Structure formats: structure tokens, C-alpha cells
Amino acid sequence: MPHVTLAGDRDGEYVIREERPDGTLVLAPETAAQASLRRLGGRAATREEFDAFVTEHREQLLPADGEG
Amino acid sequence: MTSARPGHARVAFDEHLWSEDLQRATPEAAQAAGRARRELERAGAPIDQLRPCEDQGRDGTRLAGCLKLYVPLPAGPWGIVFQLAGDEHGALLAALAFGLRHPPTRRRSSVYQLAHRRLHSKA
User: Treating both helix axes as pointing N-terminal to C-terminal, what angle do A33-40 and B15-24 enclose, rounded to 10 degrees?
Assistant: First the structure.
């Protein structure tokens, strides 16, 4: 779905869910992880940061279980 | 967003993702999700209940950089997949998807499939 960024009375990242014959657009919030993190004011951890987190907490974390 | 007790990790929930997932949920699932979220926001995610997700899952999902909790703890039928993130305060678990671990039909996406789509969508 095409992605749009609104600015004005309503701002944020949306996708165009439907474009009607009269030109009306039906929008829905963008749910991609990158957009979500931007809304939260964060950024994705790098691979190195993730590995460091797992290493730091390896005694506590449960093991991966092959489910997903 | 929360602070976290010792042995717990900070979590954050994006309202857009969360409300989309709860719209799809049964009343029972929504209730379980709500209880889980309240506890997670109160105390953080207990690290001893977190599992790393699979970089390459048997179901075709690729969830590198993600961890998960089962809902309710310790082994409920639903799950929350988190993406490890960072902000000015340090490490953070950003909730990426909530849903069934093992949907009864293939027409329904699992929480892993939902998380995979969101993780790999361009935005």
C-alpha cells in the first residue's frame, strides 16, 4: 500500500488503504516496524547490540524454542 | 513507556499496532492482552520469561533482533513479539505484535507471521 506522511492538523505516517473514484482516500496508520519505532522515539538495535543484550542476560533468558 | 524493576526490561507499546491487533482478537484474547500490557507497563518485561525469536523460523518467518513473551505467562496460547530497540534512556523492548502462537487455521496469521510482516515492511 502506498505510504504517505501527513503534516498539519493531523500528522504522522499512514498508508492508503483505499482510493475511491471520487478521489477520496481512506488512510490507516502505518504499521511497519520502522514507523512504529519512529513514533516511539526509538531506533532498532543493531545486530551487535542485540547480541550484547543476549550475552548480558544469557543466565536469565529462556532458550529459543524453535517456534518462531 | 515504563521504567523497569531489576531483572526486567523496559517496554513500549505503539498504540496503532496494539489497537490493530486487539481489533482482530477475541474478547478472551483482548482481556489477556490488556492484563499483560498493564503488568508490563507497570514493572517491565521479566527477563527470565523472555525468549529470543528465530532468525530463520521453520514457518518462514525471520525475526532477527526480536524476543518474545507468552501470554499469559509462562506458556499461554498467545504471544507478544518485541523488537529490541534503543532510545535516549537505553535498551527498550518495542512491542511489535500480539496474537495467537498457533492459530487453528492457516487463514489466520500467527503472532510470528504478523511480526515478520511488520518487521520487513518498508516505511
Answer: 130
Q: Residue type for B73, please? A: L
For residue A13, give the nearest of B54, B112, B123 by CB distance.
B123
Mean pLDDT of B44-64: 96
Separation in Å, CA B51 to CA A51, A64, B30, B66, B69: 13, 5, 22, 9, 7
Inter-chain CB proximity B54 and A66 less than 8 Å: yes
User: Would you state the torsion angle of the CA atoms of residues B96, B53, B8, B16, taken in this order, to the nearest 10 degrees?
Assistant: 0
DSSP character at residue B48: G
Residue B123 has pLDDT above 70, yes or no: no
* Helix (H/G/I), strand (E/B), else coil: B96: strand
Which parts of chain A register pLDDT below 50? none
Chain A residue nearest residue B12, CA to CA: A40
* CA dist list (Å): B16 to A6, A13, A37, A39, B73: 15, 11, 11, 10, 24
- pLDDT band per the 50, 70, 90 thresholds, residue B35: very high
How far apart, in whole angstroms, are the C-alpha atoms of residue A48 and residue A53? Answer: 9
User: Both ends of chain A: CA-CA distance in Å?
Assistant: 26
Which of B14, B67, B114 lies closest to A38, judged by CA?
B14
